[in-house]
Structure formats: structure tokens, C-alpha cells
Amino acid sequence: MRKILYFIVIISAIAIFVFLFMLQNEESSPDIIKINEKKESIATEIVDDFRNDEEEQVNKIVEKSEIELISKVVAKNENMILDFLNNYPQELKWVNIYLFDFTKDGEMEIVLSNEYLARGAGLPAYNYVYDQEGNLLFEFFCGSSVEIYAENNMDSFWLRSNIHWGSCNDMILHSKITKRENWEEDFMIAEWDMRRDGEEELYYVLDLSKIESQELWANTYDIVAEKEKENNANINEDQLKGYFPDDVGVEKKELNMKGSIYCGENGIIMEVEGKKVPFPDLP
């Protein structure tokens, strides 16, 4: 139906332009010129309006397909989501929904990120990455505003995120995820900066690679504080640089946030692209 409508609009536009061309062979006058200009404007508006309608329809289709895709993955993993929202001890908690192409196959993976308000303003996030069928590919821990650095032709991603605990108390988390037989986390490093003006101490670089990621997410501050007391946990800034690739061929990306799931007054609420979407029911 859309193709037929498009064909009719194009034929109408061509007819108008042919009519204008025939008028050009007649004797010119100011009135005729004005009429021609008006007809050209009308023809252009018809084509532009149709193109805008086409783009709007395409955007709606893409938006609908993303909502359906997200709903499918959420439905398959509903028990995990409900367990976190209903039973996790922190009062302020939610699940953010992101899209990102980790597999580099042109199809987005869906990231369900369990996040909560920790001490101060800290927002640790534990992320579950699913394929479009809702199968779990891998998990990773990070802070808020995660930046992803991808090296060309490599199944590796470097992640950089921040946890802001309070005034002069920030933690930058660095990690690397690589696809081998399975997705694996190669390392987890924390830069903990509590320096005030002019201070040189209270800055630590700590290797957290041997700590289980979910445990680290659940109790980040205390675990890192305990790790800081171990002298063998510290690494220097030059060693830190060695964990990361050169800038050549590295592209910076970010997770594409699509929505969130949280507890409302009357139950669980899911929002996608600013629209409330029915939260999947248990079968």
C-alpha cells in the first residue's frame, strides 16, 4: 500500500513539473512567473511531506522492533529482575536497559544493568549481557557512565567507568573483556582518588582482578578499602598504562540507554524510550 501511495505522489509531482515546463514555452509575464513559483513550491512540499512521513514510519517501526526485542529478553529473565527489585537489601535500586553490539555482528545485544544507590552517591552496576534470544553471554561489573573502547578487528573491549562516593572521593574502574571460547574478564583495576588541593597522598591504583565481580559490586567501597591496606595490591601509574592499547585504531563508544525497570507504587514499571511498557507476566 505504501509503495502504491509513493508511486501516486511521484506521478503527481512529475505531472506538475511537466505542466510547468509547458508553461515556460508561453509568453513570460510577472503573473505567470509567480504562478510557476507557487506551483513549484507546492510540488516540492508534496514530495517533502511524503518523505517526512516515510521517515516517521521507519522510525516507528525501528522503535517498535526495539521495544519488542527488549520485552522478549526481559520476559525470559523476569525472575532475575524480580528477585533483584523485590529482595535486594538496598532501598533505592533499579534495572537500566542498554543496547550495544559486543559481538560486532551488526545486531545489538541487550544489557540489563542492576544498579543501586550505595553509600554517598556511589552507583555500582552489575551488568548481564544477552543475545536477542535472551541467552546470557557474559556479565561484568562497572560504575556509572561507562565508556567502552574497542580495538579494530579484535574481540576485546576496555571499559572505563566512575563511582563518585562523595567530595574528593572518586573511584575510576578499568577492566578488559575478551571473547575466547567464552567471554572472560582479563583484569579489574581501581584508581581511588581522595586527594584534596595540593595533596600527593591518598591516591591509589589497586588490582582487583582476583575478586569475584558480583561480590565486588555488592560491597565495592569496603572491599577496595580493605585491599588498599595490602601493600602488594598497589601498582604504579606506569604499570597501569601497560594494561591498555595505544590510541591508534581504538574507537570510543558508550552504551545506548533505552529504558529502565523499577518499583512503582502499584508494582513493577518498565519504561522504554520514555514510554511505559507492560512488564512481562510470568507464564
Summarize the entry for a quick read:
The chain is an alpha+beta fold and 283 residues long. It is built from six helices and 13 strands.
Apparent shape: globular
Query: How many individual β-strands?
Result: 13
Tell me, rounded to a whole number, the average pLDDT. 81
Instruction: Indicate the proportion of strand residues.
Output: 25-35%
Give an overview in words.
This protein is of the alpha+beta class and 283 residues long. The protein folds into two domains: 68 residues; 201 residues, no CATH class. It is built from six helices and 13 strands. The strands form two sheets. A seven-stranded antiparallel β-sheet has the order 4-3-2-1-11-12-13. Helix 1 runs antiparallel to helix 2. The radius of gyration is 27 Å and the shape is globular. About 4% of the residues have low confidence.
Core attributes:
283 residues, alpha+beta, 2 domains, seven-stranded antiparallel beta sheet, six-stranded antiparallel beta sheet, 6 helices, 13 strands, 35% helix, 35% strand
Secondary structure topology:
Layout: H1 2-24, H2 30-76, H3 78-87, E1 93-100, E2 109-116, E3 125-130, E4 136-142, E5 144-151, E6 156-166, E7 169-179, E8 183-193, E9 203-207, H4 213-218, H5 220-228, H6 237-241, E10 250-254, E11 256-264, E12 267-272, E13 275-277
Antiparallel strand pairs: 1-2, 1-11, 2-3, 3-4, 5-6, 5-10, 6-7, 7-8, 8-9, 11-12, 12-13
Helix pairs in contact: 1-2
